[in-house]
## 1
Amino acid sequence: MDLNGARILVVGATGVLGQRLCERLGEHTTEIVVTGRSAADAERLRDRLGLRAAHALDLVDHDQAVAVVRTAAEELGGFDAVLVATGVAAFGPAAEEDEAVVEELFEVNALGPMAVLRAALPHLADGGAVAVLTGVVAELPVAGMAAYAASKAAMASWLGSLRRELRRRRIAVVDARLPHMDTGLVDRALAGPPPTLPPGHNIDDAVAAVELGLEHGVREVRLD
């Protein structure tokens, strides 16, 4: 797809990766609606980059997610692309996971993004794209990350089915299987201390890879 002048919804735009992605996409278009848990943070991002609109969106609230997507579609006159850059983590042995933490992991990492995309699809132009940041943890679960990995794997599996269903509309479904990066995500975990992790990959490289993934409609975005 051509990103120049594209109408894009970015969910989770106020995080480290979300902001960098918006900066990169903003080089091609200002027809972008951004969302974040904090309305003030989303509005500051909108104003800094000169984007179309900003809204508060908590993925745990599916009704709010659907309402925000519909409003964004009206503001942009539809979507050419939808990018979901949200995510939360939690760590600890599977046998000791707290039920409330597990529920929030699945809400933010899987169920909420699914609700956003379901609401967006009727407004998404044929030949467009959707992209979700899942992470390599979706396919390489390690000890101490059972529910976190499972929530990401659920999202990745759903995207695989969605890709098949959207073939006739020529809508690319991009699964960004990004590695660990120093975005502060692990330091904001819902529970538990993070395990020892390798040095984080370069964020700019990840952002450039997602941009190319959207442009070329690749199935998966990976970093070597």
## 2
Amino acid sequence: MKQIIYTEWLKVKNYRTFWAMLLLALIIIPAGNFMVADKFTENLQQLSKLVGNPFSFPDVWLTMASINSYISALFGLLLIILVTNEYTYRTNRQNIIDGWERKHFVYAKLFWLVLLALLTLVVATISAILVGTIYGNKPVSFEGYEYMLYYFLQLVVMLTIALLIGVLVKRAGLAIVLFVAYNMMLDQLLTFLLKRYVGTVGGLLPLQSGDELLPFPLVGKMVATGDHYDTYVYILAMLCYIILGIFLVFRKILKSDL
């Protein structure tokens, strides 16, 4: 595994586009958090008397996790670029020639998936602590931190989808279009249709499963929500999507030409 990680490091060490996109993706999280907190607190005086301050602990964990779930798509684009570059520049074939097994290619991309997800969780956690300290009126508390873990799980689902699309399509442009279309429109459209004509099962779609666990606090307190499954159902659904996505990636890489 050390050799795989070292090889991946050599691929991105001088890749300026990768570092620029990674930096931008990481900056967007605290920037988005502080921007929303600043705008809300300007008009929160009367509203806070009714629903409390969503930027105070412990509510800040849910608030920040909910906001982050809408601004993390750039990490998926970054993973797609890393995957499709392997096909564009034939580095995956060169790795096989140099002695890698096909499964090692998948391990390398799963390494990036896990690393990006963990790095995002760390940045999101630090951002939430800062927002809660600056805009809240209660001491730091990790009560309610499970919402950050729900966000992390949803992020892993999103990255798994990005990885699968990258492996199946192999071309960066088309893969990015498909990923953005699903992430921004198709998942929400299917959720709407299923909830309207089938029922609660519409909330079990890949990205929607995480959204069901991350309602924005003000909305949850002021607007009546529909029927929901228990929390463990959505968590189990996301785990199943992750396992299925990784299985399909392995199947594609092991069975098809590189």
## 3
Amino acid sequence: MASQDSRKHEIDEEDGTRVHGTESDVTRRGQLAVAVTQIAAYALLIGLVGGLGALTQAGVIASGVLAALAVAIMIVAWPFANGVTQTVFARALAVIVFIVAVAFIAPGGIPDNDATFTRWSWFMIVAFLVIVVVSFGHQMWRKDRSHLIVSMSTGLIVSACALGAACWLFLPSLMHGLLSAPDGSWIALALMVVVIALGVLLLVASGSWWNEIDGPSAYSWLGMGVMPVMLLGYAVYVAALVAHLTL
């Protein structure tokens, strides 16, 4: 008997089209699309911010716009299959988290000073606590609490991604620190290696995450593709902080 991965099937997509082929073919195409999306996102972020200038207002605005675009893509190309109520709540919470985060960073101007780094560290701690409390409260408010852990974890992951997307606003500071570091600086080299290594690990992990999705929608590969990029934002912030303090 042929395995499940080699069965012939056809998939109805949201736009009414149908994809014919084996399940393994569809899975491989999805994995490739998720990987290409991540690589393109990194290239766009680094290329645009670097081209406009690391520590310039234009560079910071570019990083913010691209971060907002990533959140919008995740919201539209929803990669998870949950109930309608949970889907709406998780998306709305993620948007609110991102807007509040950007509004918290913006008054400090270009995020490359001690005050902004300190404020953002405290903000993330408070934001995580609020996200957990609000998500848990929403689950307790539901009349039907079936799949409680899955529903709550989805909301937490999406909000965490939105918060991570806001961390990309510190990319100009990181790039400035690395570019202005003395020749042969081991700290600058270590920061680059760690961030790149984490990006590769997330790239590999995203393929596994994609395989766990049941009945992905037509464009869910796009949403899954930007999620690891947003999560890498935390590493970008930490690396920017270390570079700011040491380089």
